[in-house]
Amino acid sequence: MKIRVIDIGLGLLGWLVVAPSFAATYAGSMENTQWQVDASVFACQMRQDIPLLGEAVFMRRAGETQRFSLTELNRQLKPGQAELFSLAPRWRSVGEHYSMRELSVGDTDSVSLDWRDSQQLLQELIEGRQLLLRGDSWYESSDVVDVIIEPIRIRQALAEYQTCLSGLLPVNYDQVRRTSILFPGGTDEFDDSEQQTLDNLARYVLADPYITALVIDGHADGAGLRADNLVLSQKRAEYVVNYLIERGVPEGLIEVRWHGERYPIASNRSAAGRAQNRRVTVRVDRFEPDPEALARAN
What we know:
Layout: E1 2-5, E2 23-26, E3 36-39, E4 43-50, E5 54-61, E6 67-72, E7 77-87, E8 95-105, E9 111-113, H1 115-126, E10 130-137, E11 144-149, H2 154-166, H3 173-176, E12 178-182, H4 195-207, E13 211-218, H5 226-246, E14 254-258, H6 271-277, E15 279-286, H7 291-297
Parallel strand pairs: 2-11, 13-14
Antiparallel strand pairs: 1-8, 3-4, 4-5, 5-6, 6-9, 7-8, 7-10, 10-11, 12-15, 13-15
């Protein structure tokens, strides 16, 4: 749906053909609104505070794709369906506003969009267009709530955000906290295909100061003698340990154990099951810092 307007000086929402019975509008002022960037190797955020409501955030976490979220600290939007509009830039005397799509308003983040939709929103903002989200009011079903996301000063923030993206780690903690390395039958060396997994693990551990331990467990399948399998599982675990140490992981963080064929995760009666059992697992333990304590320290 596209609506051509000749004069948009009637007010921000004057272009709508039928005005709502009551609309509460949440938007920042042109003087004070800005995009802020939070940058680290673990995550990049570009966010805009929306006074009296919450914030709009573009975020990409290490090892994941970008997402957009609208988070309400002061709940105003009712869960359900809402509509997203793109408004012509303020500086144009003639412009075109249009409806982009319907959105689902959730119970936690009001709106959450995947990388493709978030990129579309970002492109609209780069072009100087405002985004308007209109949904039902949490308090009165007959009323509506309008949320405005401004493009003001986004280009400078975007350059900082993109610099952050280029420095992200390849993985995040959730992706490395439980890692399995598989081994061919009868050997204590893993295939080259497993190296990237361990390289990414090592990079994460070296970057995160809150890692407390790496618990490494060697395993074998049920083929062969039990005593031989115990020795083989030890050699596999030690091979992974040495690989990580060579890539800078402190030896003092590592605890190593081996179990032979004692803990299968699949049936040893099939080749596929035995392939899953020939493994070394790495558990990454991490101390979760108290956000309030971190804020006081900084």
